[in-house]
Amino acid sequence: MSNIVSKEYVQHFSTRIPWKDNDYTGRIDDEPQFNIAAQAIPNIASSRDLEFEDKNRGKSYREVGFLKMQNWITENAAFMSDIKLHLKMNHPYQKFNKKYKHFKITSFDVEPYSFLLRPFSWLLKDNAIKKQKYYNFYFDSEKTSQMLESEWVSHGDSQKGIFNYFFSGIRPKKSLIFPYYKQVPFIDDNRRVIAGVGNIVSNTKLQEYESDGSSEEKNYIWETNVAHSIRINGKEGFLMPYHEIFEYAKKHHDFDIESVVLFEPTGFRDEFSYTAEWVSYDAAISILNHAKTVLKNIATLKLQNANYKWVSIQLEYIDSQLECVWNQRGIFPGLGSMLSAFGLRYGFDVAKYIDTFDNDLISESKLYFSGEKITGNKELDESLAEHEDDFYGLLKDDIKIQYFELLSRLNLSVEQAVYAWEELKNKSKDIIENPYLLYELSRKEKTTIQITISQIDNAMFVNPLVINKYPLKEPVKMRTESDKRRFRALVIYVLEKALDRGHTLLSYDQIIDEISKLPLEHKTSFKTEKIEGVIKFLNESKLYVDEKNTYIKLKEYQEYKQLVIDIVNNRLKNSLSSEQNWRNIIDNHFGELDENNKENDERAREEKAAALKILESSKLSVLLGRAGTGKTSALGIFASYEQIKNGGVLALTPTGKARVQLENSFKKNNVKAEFMTVAQFLTRAKGFDWNTMTYKMPTGSSSSNAKTVIIDESSMLTENMFAGILKLVDSHAVRIIFIGDPNQLPPIGAGRPFVDLINYLENHCNDNIAKLKIEMRQGPGGDDLSFAQIFSNSDSIDRDVIYRIQNNETDSRFKYIQYNDIDELKTIFIEQLTEIAGMKNENDIDGFNRSLGAEVDKYTNYPTGKNIEDWQILSATKLIGVGSYYLNNLIHEKYRKTIVDKWNEYALSKYKPISTQNIVYGDKIISNVNGEKNYWDGSPGKEYIANGEIGIMSDYPGHYGKNDNNHKYYKFRFASFEGKEFSYTKNEIGGNERDSILELAYALTVHKSQGSGFTKTIVVINGKSSFITKELLYTAFSRQKEKLVIISDLSLDELILYSNDWYSDTKQRYTDLFVIPSIAEINFEEKKRYFEEKLIHKTIRGEMVRSKSEVIIANILNSLDIKYSYEKPVDIKGKTYIPDFTLEYQGEIAYIEHLGMLNVAAYEKHWNEKKMNYDSEGISEENDNLIITKDEENGSIDSKKIEEKIKKWMYRR
């Protein structure tokens, strides 16, 4: 028996840092109020004094006082400081629990060039209990519970045991440290962004809280100094030049900033969470490899500081660290996890002793299980002894032994190892023959279980710098790096990633291109011929290869497609009878025509009657209409019809908010229906997995038997949601009705099934499409609506609203204001908020409160929720640029600071600001979760509080003084449930290291607002620093009922550019749901993008125009060899007009105006005014410099007539 010393183990670490707009030397931001990204860190968000920071912008922490900036410092805002920073640490429970009263305020120094590491995940009590099964550290769960009923480890010796173990793998100059951001201001992505790479250069030393001696209990300061090697322009570590990249991106709007951003490696999110964490070898290798790619891309930008020379130095450093990490990793980095999966207690620690220098892995392991070799650690040796017989049982099964050895070669987490060993063991033979099956089989599991391709790669292709005495053998061994097994996994991976961008398929060329972009250690230059050579092997997996059309998709999406096509086509074969006089029913419902809007009302009723006839007679139909055209009221009338009502109605929506709105609308019409979100409905049939939050093909049956199924907000449906709904309802539904506006944002996920269905019906069964176009919500006219329509896909729009804006001639419903800088934005924003909220002036807090429904007298009360949606601020982003978080901050700082300060005044007060946003009494909030809530007042019943439901804090603990019996509940009223209050505790709301379930809602993102409507809206566009799309702008500009104010850093001409299909997300998605895709390459300003050709209007010249009519006109001009410009602004009498085409021929200039909406009174009125202005400047048909073309009465266009008119102008002389 021999006692073995464990081999050196090197641990790497991550640590969270806040975004800073200058540097990390220890100074206040240059623009504190604009640094919203830092507020992704709760400790900073909840404690910021923006007024103080703004007054001291750019000053050093030493100058303003370290204690004033302590929360920034403890969150690693000064890790590049070259001086000590002196802090005072107060025990968090000292004031609130007598067991901790003896702890004194303790002096604490942050060392120069040091990170403060806090392993939050390890200090969560439940996590500590789980981890203790696998890691041999001291932790007394019972004593921890006796100390304090808290989620955190509060027992001193247990804290010490965890800290010592967590830091035990630090090896100065060998351990790496990866600082990361939770949020940055230049990219809207939920992945962590790696801030840099360096080495840890010191061991750690724990510091106790000082005590007055009245108790022997010790506790430790969680912040632990760890010195690092990162220096500006140093050679032993670096920070990514994100500030310089950010400035570059502002000047190059179409620049792909992702190409120069270092993200967390795929599959390793947990290693970059909870403030500080261990980083596995494979995660470190992935980051270092990705860094090489990113740095090379940065070199091409020719930045001033991060130039080629700087990049070269960092690449040398990365190569040296890669060599070190690979050697630390060795051949069997997953042994500890596999021993744990095998059932061994402290498997991670046992693995440190098993050295394969003399023996192979299984032989060496056998020596320890048998006791011939011991670790010398009693607990470890006992654990080995307990499993000796199990190990001998394993030795009798050659396949299991090979499988165990293979998995030990992968740097698996314990959770991955347990899954692979317990859930995939029955497929072990197949996995031995193809290790990449580990990725294929785990990709649908929750993210912490998914085994990544890079983990398998690193086991299959060990870096040649590593001494490998145990190379892989057949059948595990890969023949080359282009082995078909690896290639197939890579194809599946890029298709999975494509789903996130909305694509359900990729062409052969695209697949090869996407694989070439992956940050792989082992790159291979695949060609499309590779696909041709392994088609049979690809089809044997979860792939569907369309050989004829040369594209590949995941097999599940081919199944979705086939199911959808079969059901849709079957329902289109015949129609239902139509027996109702819907016009009479509508007239009975609405009464007499609106005297002030008779013509519009008449047309709207006729339109609704025609639409309801289509819904009644169709087994499958779509109801289209923008917000305000009365889709919901029409549905209410339809569903209240006796035959429909008696058959039962099932109403489904993609979101909880849409569900509540539809339900409330139906209630007003006394319509009964089953209301569910799509997720709720599919969950009942095993079509939605709450663990992974993903949809799949349902395996159960529908929980409903309703004869009429209505799906609202259908533009938000992904392809798998769409297929799941159809599969379940087809058996019992007589009518299936999809409702929505195809111009709105496409779904977050794969496909665009609603748009594809509409396109299919237009070409095959147009009679099944019901359209509502007449806008009743805005009344007659409405420049706000006209402007929104510019960003729609409508062939006919009132483009002249642009010149009305430029010439300050818009009606009272619309306003467009451009700002130049952030200070000007703040001034304009508060001015416009003051106006739409009906305040006397910008400091009228009572007026602000009244706009939210407050009753203001001696005291301010919030007895109602009905005014909460009277006004709303919208922004394209949340944390990027002038996002909703910044705007909420701006409003909250101005109108709620007094209450926040008052609530924070007394430490022992019953009420405290909630969440990191300091939510207080009277704050407008939004729910971030779906769930049922009981009424607060004790009356029977409950309501479904949806994700997206907007409310207001109407009461709080101790509101009514000492005699108030409410000691812990914060009460809220919601817009959808007038007269009811709902209560939440502070812990329930959350907002520390977990996301808050309620957050401020004065400003919302456009995505969050989809499906909602507000009386007045202010839309803030920060186009110069955030990516916006055509659909996003349309959605943003169509939420209002009465007034729209746009505040933008873009000029009107710049914003209008986004109405072109070049900026469409929907039309750039690749899908084959109903037809084979026809992808068109479009070039614009030296860039190219790819679009579904059937969804765009492309001229012969290759430019994208708005309508088929314009395509015809442009192609005629091209055929006649006339030089033309499309939508080129023209100045006339100081006013700007935008004709459809400007022609130049033989030195003569003329303009073409195509009229497509003359049946709309307001449009005709505006055209006549514009024509008079043209006439006054000598531009007219009589003067042969204006060509007016029109749609025919049936909406068609006569190309011969148009050509004749153009030729007449050409040959007039």
Description of the molecule:
The protein has 47 helices and 47 strands. It starts with a strand and ends with a helix. It has 1213 residues and is α/β, with parallel strands linked by helices. The strands form 15 sheets. Strands 2, 6, 7, 8, 10 and 11 form a six-stranded mixed sheet that branches. Strands 18-17-21-22-16-23 form a six-stranded parallel sheet, with helices on both faces.
Write the layout of secondary structure elements.
Blueprint: E1 2-3, E2 12-17, H1 42-45, H2 50-55, H3 61-64, H4 70-74, E3 85-89, E4 106-110, E5 114-117, H5 120-123, H6 125-131, H7 141-147, H8 156-166, E6 176-181, E7 193-194, E8 196-199, E9 224-227, E10 237-239, H9 242-251, E11 276-279, H10 281-299, H11 308-329, H12 335-341, H13 347-351, H14 361-370, E12 373-374, H15 378-386, H16 388-395, H17 398-408, H18 414-423, H19 428-433, H20 437-442, H21 453-460, H22 484-500, E13 506-507, H23 508-517, H24 528-533, H25 535-539, E14 543-546, E15 551-554, H26 555-572, H27 582-590, H28 598-617, E16 620-625, H29 631-640, H30 642-647, E17 649-653, H31 656-668, E18 674-677, H32 678-683, E19 688-689, E20 694-695, E21 708-711, H33 719-729, E22 735-740, H34 753-764, E23 769-772, H35 783-790, H36 801-806, E24 814-818, H37 822-836, H38 845-851, E25 855-856, E26 860-861, E27 871-875, H39 884-895, H40 897-903, E28 924-927, E29 931-934, E30 942-945, E31 950-955, E32 969-974, E33 982-985, H41 986-989, E34 998-1000, E35 1003-1005, H42 1006-1009, E36 1014-1021, H43 1030-1036, E37 1040-1048, ...
Parallel strand pairs: 1-12, 2-6, 16-22, 16-23, 17-18, 17-21, 21-22, 24-37, 27-35, 27-36, 36-37, 46-47
Antiparallel strand pairs: 2-11, 3-4, 5-9, 6-7, 6-8, 8-10, 13-15, 14-15, 19-20, 25-26, 28-31, 28-34, 29-30, 31-32, 32-33, 38-39, 40-41, 42-45, 43-44, 45-46
